[in-house]
Design goal:
The chain has 13 helices and 6 strands. The protein is an alpha/beta fold and 327 residues long. This is Phosphoglycolate phosphatase.
C-alpha cells in the first residue's frame, strides 16, 4: 500500500532536524511551553503545538500574537531558549543512516531551529562532517528559500565524507529536482518541497502521522530509519561504505585486545580518508582502550585482579574537554 514507485537515485538529501534526526516531541514542547506561558499564546498542549508545523512554524506562531512587534519578540525569545536549553537525543539508528548516505550523496540539514542548536546536536553525535550545508531558522527561516539556495549553488555536487574538507575530487552527477529529496516529519515541510519541485520523503516517528505526510505529497514514508537508505539509494544501498562515515568500530573489532588497531584517519574516527580530527581520534583511542581493558579483565586467561586495571578519567572531565575542543 505504501510501496514507492521507481524513482531516480538520490544525489542530494536534505534532512529536517527536529522529529527527523532527533527526538523532539517532548524536548521541543518543553521549551515552547515556557514561551507559551510567558506570552500567553493560548497553546493548550503538545498536539496543538505540533499543529503549528503544518505550515511555517514562525508564521503559525505569529498568528497567535497580537501584532508584528510581539511576534518578533516571541520568535527572538523562542530561539534564545532553544539555544540555551534544547539538546534532544538522536533518533535510534539515524546516525548509521546518515553515515551511509554521506558516501553517496551531498547531505544538508534544514531546520526552523537555531544554528547554534544544530551545531550542538551534530557535533555531540559526531555527524557534523557528514553534512555539506546547514540552514538554520535564524539564517533562512523559510525552507523553500533554503532549498532554492541549495539548488542554485554551483558547488552543490561536492559533499563531505566525514572529514572537515569537502570532497573536491568527487565526480558526481549534479543534483537536480528529480534527484534532490527532503526527508522530514511534518506536512508543512512536505508541501514546501512539492512547491519548490523536489521530492519529499516522510518519516513516521515525528510530529505528523504517515497518512498526513502522504496526503501532503510525500512519495514514501519510512517506518524505520534504515528504510531511508534502501529507498534513497536503491541497489547502491548494498555497496560497502567506501569513503563514507562507516559505523565506528568497537575496540575489540578494530584490533586485538593487546593492540586495539590503528586510529582512524577521518574526522569522525570511522576509517574514512581525510585529515585527522584530534578530538575524535582521542575519543576513539580512549574508547578502544576501555573496551580492550574490559575484555582482558572479563575473558583473558590471566585476568588481573580488580585493582590492577586503572580507570580512565571521570566522564565529567571527558565531557568538559570535549566541550572545550568543540568551541
Amino acid at each position: 500500500m505504501n510501496a514507492p514507485p521507481a524513482t531516480p537515485r538520490a544525489e542530494a538529501v536534505l534532512f529536517d532536524l527536529d522529529g527527523t534526526l532527533v527526538q523532539t516531541r517532548i524536548a521541543s514542547w518543553t521549551v515552547f511551553s515556557t514561551i507559551n506561558d510567558r506570552f500567553g499564546l493560548g497553546v493548550d498542549g503538545p498536539e496543538q503545538y505540533f499543529d503549528l508545523f503544518r505550515g511555517n512554524v514562525y508564521d503559525s506562531i505569529a498568528k497567535l500574537c497580537r501584532d508584528e512587534e510581539q511576534a518578533a519578540e516571541v520568535k527572538e525569545a523562542f530561539l534564545a531558549l532553544l539555544r540555551a536549553e534544547y539538546s534532544p537525543p538522536l533518533v535510534p539508528g539515524v546516525g548509521d543512516v546518515v553515515r551511509r548516505l554521506a558516501g553517496h550523496c551531498t547531505l544538508a540539514v534544514m531546520s526552523s531551529n537555531a544554528m547554534q542548536v544544530m551545531r550542538r546536536v551534530l557535533t555531540d553525535n559526531d555527524l557534523a562532517f557528514c553534512f555539506a550545508h546547514v540552514f538554520g531558522g535564524d539564517v533562512i527561516p523559510d525552507k523553500r528559500a533554503a532549498v532554492r539556495t541549495f539548488l542554485a549553488d554551483s558547488a552543490n555536487t561536492f559533499g563531505r565524507r566525514c572529514s572537515a574538507d569537502y570532497d573536491e575530487g568527487g565526480l558526481r552527477q549534479a543534483p537536480d529536482l528529480a534527484s534532490t529529496v527532503l526527508v522530514t516529519d511534518t506536512a508543512g515541510d512536505v508541501r514546501d518541497a512539492v512547491e519548490v519541485g523536489i521530492r519529499a520523503v516522510g518519516v513516521a516517528w515525528g510530529m505528523h502521522p504517515a497518512e498526513e505526510l502522504l496526503a501532503a505529497g510525500a512519495e514514501f514514508v519510512a517506518l524505520w530509519p534504515q528504510e531511508l537508505t534502501a529507498h534513497l539509494l536503491g541497489d547502491a544501498a548494498t555497496l560497502p561504505p567506501g569513503g563514507a562515515c562507516a559505523i565506528p568500530a568497537a575496540g575489540a573489532q578494530a584490533g586485538t585486545a593487546a593492540d586495539p588497531g590503528p586510529v582512524a584517519t577521518g574526522g569522525c574516527g570511522c576509517g574514512c580518508a581525510g585529515e585527522p580530527d584530534p578530538a575524535a581520534a582521542g575519543r576513539v583511542r580512549r574508547d578502544r582502550r576501555r573496551t580492550a581493558a574490559g575484555t582482558r579483565a572479563a575473558t583473558g586467561p590471566e585476568a588481573p585482579g580488580p585493582t590492577a586495571a586503572r580507570p580512565g578519567p571521570p566522564d565529567e572531565m571527558l565531557d568538559a574537554v570535549r566541550r572545550v575542543m568543540r568551541r
